[in-house]
Amino acid sequence: xxxxxxxxxxxxxxxxxxxxxxxxxxxxxxxxxxxxxxxxxxxxxxxxxxxxxxxxxxxxxxxx
Length: 64
Hints:
alpha+beta
């Protein structure tokens, strides 16, 4: 996904639809008065990162 995202940023100058992304975030928190826990996870998906994920999955299936 990282390689696909980098490739999308590079090719985004010529193919602008590769730069369009959707952000998914999740932020659970816990407050117990003496202990506070906060976690934030944010994923940004774009067409190139999904293609990179599919390519990595295809390679892993071919290696087996």
